[in-house]
Specification:
Blueprint: E1 3-7, H1 16-26, E2 33-37, H2 39-49, H3 53-68, H4 86-99, H5 112-121, E3 134-140, E4 145-149, H6 154-162, E5 171-173, E6 176-180, H7 189-194, E7 199-203, H8 219-238, E8 244-246, H9 261-286, H10 289-302, H11 304-311
Parallel strand pairs: 1-2, 1-7, 2-3, 7-8
Antiparallel strand pairs: 3-4, 3-6, 5-6
Helix pairs in contact: 1-3, 1-9, 2-6, 3-5, 5-6
């Protein structure tokens, strides 16, 4: 039986994947493949290269807290009284995404900031060379379709998968422009199935659909709200393909709150531990002789080559 984990997008909330993977590591639950979107691509790439959560956690902390904010494009804030505040910068970036800007820029930051992080923490290898097979999701903005990357530069692929529209510019790969994969498949369970997984755990860290106390008063907020509802319902349909869904209690936290690193990891651990017995039961069930026979029969039945051989 092939096991996979689908690591979803959610910005800083994706740090909860570390806590989840740590619990699996401690309980000797290994994965045959990983699918990642956005921050899930970053964590997925690091784990696919080296299955050591403590080391990955240190790598990310060292970068985020020692280098990240020093790499921000502070020129955007010149003349602002809070121009030295990273928190203010992130807040302005969120406002840029929500409301747009008066200038002609296609992003708040230049890609050098995100690219620097990826080039610092991820080795320059082909995605095919990871120890665990990895697939990363990005959005093709020319045709609006999902792009599943399984070959090519790992750094470039992760950059494309994590380039939040409006915050970072699109990424060009082989003449096609890509942005954050969360807009087409925020928790890529379906991708793990396409990779051949029989058992998929979905690590879902997308933002929460909140109940509004007050109806939006302007047309822009109403449109944003309706788009968010449509996306949320679409994502809920996609994630039903998972055998088990993990939802850490962090959905109320903003995508930019990287300062809550430890909280994210701890909540990921709590959620994984709470579902651990269910996960083990499901794995044992699928490892039973009857389930194995059913999978073999299904693979034979739906294999074009085997079906052709059977007919002739």
């Amino acid at each position: 039986m092939k096991k996979a984990i689908a690591l979803g997008g959610g910005g800083a909330r994706g740090l909860a994947h570390l806590g989840i993977l740590k619990v699996f590591e401690e309980n000797d639950i290994k994965f045959d493949m990983i699918a990642g979107t956005s921050m899930g691509s970053v964590i997925g790439a690091l784990y696919a290269i080296e299955q050591n959560v403590d080391k990955i956690q240190k790598t990310l902390k060292d970068y985020l807290f020692n280098k990240m904010f020093s790499k921000l494009n502070m020129e955007k804030l010149q003349g602002d009284s809070e121009s030295t505040s990273a928190k203010s910068l992130i807040r302005k970036a969120r406002e840029f995404v929500k409301y747009g800007a008066s200038n002609e820029s296609n992003s708040f930051f230049v890609n050098s900031m995100l690219e620097d992080m990826i080039n610092t923490i991820i080795p320059d290898i082909d995605i095919k060379d990871t120890k665990i097979p990895l697939a990363c999701v990005a959005t093709d903005i020319t045709n609006g379709k999902e792009k599943i990357f399984t070959k090519g530069s790992l750094r470039k692929i992760v950059l494309a998968s994590t380039s939040i529209p409006g915050v970072f510019p699109p990424v060009n790969i082989d003449g096609i422009w890509y942005t954050d994969g969360a807009h087409v498949n925020v928790t890529p369970v379906s991708v793990a199935r396409l990779m051949g997984a029989d058992f998929v755990i979905g690590s879902d860290v997308k933002s929460k659909l909140k109940t509004l106390d007050v109806v939006p008063v302007n047309s822009r907020d109403i449109m944003n709200r309706c788009n968010f509802i449509a996306n949320h319902l679409f994502y809920e349909i996609l994630i039903k393909e998972a055998n088990v869904v993990l939802e850490p209690n962090i959905k109320q936290i903003s995508w930019s709150e990287f300062n809550k690193f430890n909280l994210m990891v701890n909540e990921g651990e709590k959620e994984a531990k709470s579902k651990l017995s269910i996960i083990k039961q499901e794995i044992n069930k699928l490892n039973s002789p009857i389930s194995q026979c059913k999978r073999l029969f299904k693979k034979f039945l739906f294999s074009k080559d085997n079906l052709r051989a059977a007919i002739y």
